[in-house]
TrEMBL record:
Residues 14-74 form the HTH tetR-type domain. It holds the Pfam family TetR_C_11. This is AcrR family transcriptional regulator. Keywords: DNA-binding, Transcription, Transcription regulation. Gene3D superfamilies: Homeodomain-like, Tetracycline Repressor, domain 2. Residues 37-56 bind DNA. InterPro entries: Homeodomain-like_sf, HTH-type_TetR-like_transc_reg, HTH_TetR, Tet_transcr_reg_TetR-rel_C_sf, TetR_C.
Length: 201
């Protein structure tokens, strides 16, 4: 037995975990993080709230587990044949993702929650680290094709390409549209071509 709220969920069936995760995402989309409750998730998922409390402990545990599952899912990595096209498609994916009426509110809720909750912040950090590693393949391909210098830090190029979009979306509140996405991709690519992201060792 584990103390309720002291451990991440474990020893559960995949069906139960997925039902709770789907309910967590649906509640986030409808009510935001502030409206997230264990009772609401239990009701929507059909899983008894005692089970939810025992396995997930709190809304923070539920949000973190939902991010855990999402981090292991495949990300649609662009493959246009050029690093320029790939980076442009990648930054556009970020913009369209946050603009999506279904996925956008969920992603926004996770980012907002991470500012206030350490457990969610750690889970979100791990989620984005996984996404950056997955996306780094487009930079690795570019190095192999000779489009970028040897020793270029692939993950850092991806991080720098998408960073301006998150700055607009969550810091300044400025619009982040396709033109902004293209400019962010072009800036990161120019820096990469200039060797800014090459390892010094």
């Amino acid at each position: 037995m584990t103390t309720p709220g002291s451990a991440r969920p474990g020893g559960r069936t995949a069906r139960t975990r997925e039902a709770v995760r789907a309910a967590t995402l649906a509640e986030l989309a409808e009510k935001g993080y502030d409206g997230l409750t264990v009772e609401g998730i239990a009701l929507r998922s059909g899983v008894h709230k005692t089970t939810v409390y025992r396995r997930w402990g709190s809304v923070e545990g539920l949000a973190a587990d939902a991010l855990d599952l999402a981090g292991g899912e495949p990300w649609p990595i662009p493959d246009t044949g050029t690093v320029e096209g790939d980076l442009r498609e990648l930054t556009r994916l970020v913009v369209t993702g946050f603009a999506d009426p279904d996925a956008g509110p969920i992603a926004t809720a996770f980012v907002s929650a991470s500012v206030r909750n350490p457990a969610t912040a750690r889970a979100l950090h791990a989620f984005y680290a996984a996404r950056h590693r997955q996306s780094a393949v487009l930079i690795t391909r570019a190095i192999e094709r000779g489009e970028l210098p040897e020793g270029t830090d692939a993950v850092e190029v991806v991080r720098v390409a998408v960073a301006p979009l998150y700055y607009r979306l969550f810091i300044t509140g400025e619009p982040a549209d396709e033109a902004v996405a293209d400019r962010a991709a072009a800036s990161a690519l120019a820096a990469a071509r200039a060797g800014v992201f090459q390892s010094s060792t």
